[in-house]
């Protein structure tokens, strides 16, 4: 994660190797998304950059989309904390998921397990700007959905996460 946002001109000046080096981690441990997004290069504006990442995910085969979703960490899960992308760590910390009470942690664990058992993927939500209470509420609302509905919802949430991350990395 870089500190100073790049200009769109700097992004457009990148070759494919530099682009993947800069954005290969934007989609949780899935550099293929940046590789596919590069096909939209050069980008007319920030919206076109975001759209290229979204299109890369939308055009991917179901198996690649499923693998992308499964790369996302459980929210408030401590077991994989060392494996989280830096941005995932920051996003979860910003939502207060590092300051859960024992009861809240138990609730997140129960919800994560129930969600994975029902849907076969982790619960994914763009947590930037959310509170832990809002996240738990969303968990409870989405848990009863069908696996097909949640697969589509998870892809939408991944696209939101990518948009937020690109907003942080590239000046609009």
Automatic annotation (TrEMBL):
<dbReference type="InterPro" id="IPR018020">
    <property type="entry name" value="OHCU_decarboxylase"/>
</dbReference>
<dbReference type="GO" id="GO:0051997">
    <property type="term" value="F:2-oxo-4-hydroxy-4-carboxy-5-ureidoimidazoline decarboxylase activity"/>
</dbReference>
<dbReference type="InterPro" id="IPR036778">
    <property type="entry name" value="OHCU_decarboxylase_sf"/>
</dbReference>
<dbReference type="InterPro" id="IPR017580">
    <property type="entry name" value="OHCU_decarboxylase-1"/>
</dbReference>
<dbReference type="Pfam" id="PF09349">
    <property type="entry name" value="OHCU_decarbox"/>
</dbReference>
<keyword id="KW-0456">Lyase</keyword>
<dbReference type="GO" id="GO:0000255">
    <property type="term" value="P:allantoin metabolic process"/>
</dbReference>
<dbReference type="GO" id="GO:0019628">
    <property type="term" value="P:urate catabolic process"/>
</dbReference>
<feature type="domain" description="Oxo-4-hydroxy-4-carboxy-5-ureidoimidazoline decarboxylase">
    <location>
        <begin position="12"/>
        <end position="167"/>
    </location>
</feature>
<keyword id="KW-0659">Purine metabolism</keyword>
<protein>
    <recommendedName>
        <fullName>2-oxo-4-hydroxy-4-carboxy-5-ureidoimidazoline decarboxylase</fullName>
        <ecNumber>4.1.1.97</ecNumber>
    </recommendedName>
</protein>
<dbReference type="GO" id="GO:0006144">
    <property type="term" value="P:purine nucleobase metabolic process"/>
</dbReference>
<keyword id="KW-0210">Decarboxylase</keyword>
<comment type="pathway">
    <text>Purine metabolism; urate degradation; (S)-allantoin from urate: step 3/3.</text>
</comment>
């Amino acid at each position: 994660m870089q500190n100073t946002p790049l200009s769109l001109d700097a992004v457009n000046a990148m070759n494919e190797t530099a682009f993947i080096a800069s954005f290969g981690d934007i989609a949780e441990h899935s550099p293929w998304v940046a590789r596919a997004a590069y096909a939209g290069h050069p980008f007319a504006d920030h919206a076109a950059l975001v759209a290229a990442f979204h299109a890369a995910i939308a055009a991917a085969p179901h198996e690649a989309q499923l693998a992308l979703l499964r790369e996302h960490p459980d929210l408030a899960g401590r077991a994989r904390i060392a494996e989280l992308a830096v941005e995932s760590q920051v996003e979860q910390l910003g939502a207060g998921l590092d300051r859960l009470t024992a009861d809240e942690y138990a609730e997140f664990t129960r919800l994560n397990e129930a969600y994975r058992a029902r849907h076969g993927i982790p619960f994914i939500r763009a947590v930037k700007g959310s509170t832990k209470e809002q996240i738990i509420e969303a968990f409870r609302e989405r848990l009863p959905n069908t696996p097909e509905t949640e697969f589509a919802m998870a892809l939408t949430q991944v696209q939101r996460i990518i948009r937020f991350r690109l907003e942080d990395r590239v000046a609009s």
